[in-house]
Structures are given as C-alpha cells and as structure tokens.
Amino acid sequence: MAFEKVKRSENYSEWYNNLVKNADLAEHSAVKGCMVIKPYGYAIWEKMQQALDKMFKETGHSNAYFPLFVPKNLFEKEEKNAEGFAKECAVVTHYRLKNDPDNPGKLIVDPNSKLEEELIVRPTSEAIIWNTYKNWIQSYRDLPILLNQWANVVRWEMRTRLFLRTAEFLWQEGHTAHATKEEALAETKQMLDVYAKFAEGFMAVPVIRGVKSENERFAGADDTYCIEGMMQDGKALQMGTSHFLGQNFAKAFDVKFQDKNSKLEYVWATSWGVSTRLMGALIMVHSDDEGLVLPPALAPIHVVIVPVFRTDEELNQVTETALAIKKDLEKLGLTVKYDNRDTQKPGFKFAEWELKGVPVRIALGPRDLQNGVAEVARRDTKTKESVPLNGLAAHIHGMMETIQSALYEKALAYRTAKTWEVNTWEEFVDVIENREGFALAHWDGTGETEEKIKEMTKATIRCIPFDAKEETGACILSGKPSSKRVVFAKAY
After folding, report:
1. Would 255 disulfide with which of 172, 221, 250, 364, CB 3.0-4.6 Å?
2. Cα 317 from Cα 365, distance rounded (Å)
3. Which helix (H) or strand (E) element contains residue 237?
4. Could you give the CA distance from residue 420 to residue 260 in angstroms, rounded to a whole number?
C-alpha cells in the first residue's frame, strides 16, 4: 500500500492514528478538534447504532430528539452538572453576521444581533430534557418515561484524538423518569447490562462492570455505573456509563407528580450513554500491524472475493463462480464484496482488504476452479485453507461465529494476563509504570487519597467492580483499612 506502516509495539499512539486514517475510517477536519467520519468508518458506526437501537427498543425505550441549544438559565439550574461541564461549553452569543465595511468580502459579527440570553451548545442534554419533562409529567400515570436520542454533542477539548476525544462527537443518550427510587436504580443497572452485552457480544470486548468513585462520578449524579475495557497497550477505556440521577434534576426543574395516594413527589431519574469512542475501542482491542481486525458482528463487509486471473477469458470463468458464491453467502445473511477491479493486482487487493479488517477473504483462480476449491483466509489468525466449492457458503457462515468467539477469547486472555492484585505501593507503581495494565488494589475510600495517587502515577480508579469480593486489606498509599479491591489503571 502507498503509506508508511507504524508498528503497534513501537509507537502505539502513532500506530492508532495512522490506522484510523489509512483504513479510511476518519480524518481531521477544517474545524480544529473535530473529525470527518468517512463512509467506511460510518458504516461500522451504523452497525453499532442498529444493534444498540434494537436492544434499547427491546427494553421498552423509544427514540426522540431534543434541541442542540440549551438556554444558559436552564443549563445553570442543576449546579453540579453545570459546574462539571462549564469549562467544556461552546456558547452562542450572536445570531447574525454582516459585511465588514473596512474589509470588503469579509464578515464580522453584527453587534446588533446579540442574543437576549446566551445559548449553550449541548455538552449533554439533561437540562433541556428535564425542562421539557416538567410539561409532560403530572401524575403517576405519566410515568415511566423511557426515551433515548441519537445526537451530536460538543465538549471543547484541548487535546483531541480521532474517535476517542473530539470537540464534537456522535452518541446516544437515554433519559428516563420514574415514580420510585427502586425503578430508577433498576433502569440504571439494566442499561449498563445492555452496554456490557453489546460490548462483549458485538464488539468482542470483555468489560468490567462497576460503579465509579465519587471523584469520577458524572456531574449531577448520585451514582455512576460503567463498563471498562482494556486496550492492547494496557490502558483502560471507559466504554459506557449509566447514571442514577436520584431526584437532583427533578428538584432543579421542579418536576413533581401526584402519586397513587394523591401526594406530590419528585420524579426519579436516570441517564446513560455511549459514543463514537466505541470505534476507538474496537480498533485498539483487536487490530494489528497490518490493519483493522473487525468482529463479524460489526463488519460492514463480511467476505471479500478476489479473482486471480491473467486474461479476460479467465476473469469471465472466475466471475461466474464468484457471483454464485456471493449469492449463496448473501442468502445466509452475509455481506459480500466481489473485487473485480482490473486496475489493481490481487496482492494489492489482499493488502487493502486486510487493512480494512474484512473477516474472510476468498481468492479464486482458474486452477481453483479446476480443482473445485477456493482459498479461504481468516483475517484474525491470518491462516489459509483450501475449501471445496461444494458447501463453501455454509463453511464460511460457520467461520463467522468462530471468528467472533476467538476475538473475544483473545482479548479476555490478554486482559487476564495484564491484571494483577497488588498489596504494596511498590507493587502498584511497578504495574502502572512497567508492566502496564490493571492493578487491583485496596483503597481507603477517600477522594484525597484517590487524587494523590492520580497526581503521583496518572492512574485513576476505573471502577469498583460489582463482583469485587469482600476482604480485609490496607490502602496501598495511606495504609488505612479497606474491604474491597478497586481497579486502577492509566486511561484514555
């Protein structure tokens, strides 16, 4: 291919950036800090959207859409939420431009178009949604409200990285309203479980389910639950969050309902979301020096068929069989690309589709036709085999499940190998600085100790795992008593 490859083991960050660009997933835009998601990258995101959207609807949720702009007075109502996002907000102050009298052809802000109230470009939508819910909720009969929206948000990031952290990104955000605390908590946990099932079942990424520490909690939430994945450099990536908002937003926006006993009560709330950073996780967990490695569940193209030929006559012979194979595979629900371009040689095509992570490649030439076989190559293991044309489609269909499972098991084995229980400060620093990965360590539960550890090592508490066992221990830094281990790691 016509670009310089960077080895993952030599410069992980540069390897990632190059892969995103070379595989035609995304590129930097003319707007600083923002990205252009290219068709192939967006096709993967669409597959994610479709799968998640189906899971949301199966759990009783409906889609809606709310404005991009949030009046400043609404944004300020829930103080912790406003304070948490204040430094990342883009603000609209005027609504019109005009010609610059001193510079023909240039435009300036019309000072007479100043807005009566500034508008915040949404960094998240709790404020505008809960102001709306106030008009929708009067009685217990109006509850629950189970809504999701697919949208874009803006968080003014200073240091950006394609998919992982950009000033504008795509996401979904669920916002639900409930009559009881128990219902809201059940919803929060249910949606985290949906995210975990998606990550493991579709992305083939093993995740740890847990609750965030108070310091890492979503601004305005009583509790934040999360799923954390490990990337191939041992760093953590927060892949999804589900927030129990308590009655904080209901109180801020005065959203009350009359219960079955005619008593006025504040509504209980949740919010939950995942974003295009899942694309970053997909890339960083599975890919290699040759390019993307995509799990079949999210691959835009499952199989590519590359003809090997010298003459037009040979191409015609191969094409007839290739199109028959394509038809058989499509009947089984697979997406197939027949790459019969005559502008590139087979070797170029092999490298290109390997770079793009297509799970299975079929090479088919005149000799293969004579022998009644096709050469089938797996992207994940880079293994090849000759498979009889009779029964080829069924064989490849079965391979998809094998590949999906193998990718998950490989990622799980890596995470297991890179996770250590540590009991001393020296062991902790060794894991964070030298071994790289997750350190399961005791912590005294204070924000002060958490901040000190972060300042000294750049490691943060990723979560307190739901399945953490009760055990007597001492905090690695303060030596104070602790009853559970938490997950520390450097993170994206």
Report:
1. 250
2. 9
3. strand 236-246
4. 51
Residue with tokens 């890919």: 287
Count Cα atoms within 13 angstroms, Cβ side, for 9: 2
Q: Residue 153: phi, psi to the nearest 5?
A: -135, 160
- Residues 42-52: pLDDT tens digits? 999 999 999 99
Low-confidence ranges of the chain (pLDDT < 70): 1-3
Q: What is residue 290's DSSP assignment?
A: T
Contact 472, 442 (CB under 8 A): no
Q: What value, to the nearest 5°, has the Cα angle with vertex 215 and ends 214 and 219?
A: 80
- Cβ atoms of 175 and 188 within 8 Å: the answer is no
- Between CA 64 and CA 31 the distance in angstroms is 28
Q: Which of 172, 132, 159 shows the shortest CA–CA distance to 50?
A: 172
Burial group, residue 413, by CB count within 10 angstroms (0-12, 13-18, 19+)? exposed
426's CB contacts (< 8 A; 6+ apart) are: none
Extract the tokens encoding 188: 């929060």
Structure tokens at 375: 């050469």
| Side-chain half-sphere exposure of 296, counting CA atoms within 13 A | 24
Q: Is 415 helix (H, G, I), strand (E, B) or coil?
A: helix
Q: Which residue has the tokens 């309902």?
A: 257
Predicted pLDDT at 157 = 84
Measured N-to-C along each axis, helices 277-286 and 39-58 cross at an angle, to the nearest 10 degrees, of: 110
Question: What pLDDT was estimated at residue 171?
Answer: 98
For 41, the enclosing helix (H) or strand (E) is: helix 39-58
Looking at residue 468, its pLDDT comes to 95
State the Cα–Cα distance between residues 175 and 273, nearest whole angstrom: 9
pTM of the full structure: 0.96
Q: Which among 275, 273, 269 has a CA at the least distance from the CA of 78?
A: 269
What angle separates helix 277-286 from helix 392-417, to the nearest 10 degrees? 90
Query: How far apart are alpha carbons 467 and 490 in whole angstroms?
Result: 21
**Per-residue pLDDT reduced to its tens digit, 405-442:** 999 999 999 999 999 999 999 999 999 999 999 999 99
Chain-centroid distance, C-alpha 479: 36
Backbone angles phi, psi at 111, to 5 degrees: -65, -20
**Cα separation of 211 and 426, whole Å?**
26
d(CA 133, CA 130): 5
Q: Return the pLDDT at 339.
A: 98
Concatenating the DSSP letter of every residue in 298-345 gives G-S-SEEEEE--SSHHHHHHHHHHHHHHHHHHHHTT--EEE---SSS-
- CA torsion sign for 54, 57, 59, 65 is positive
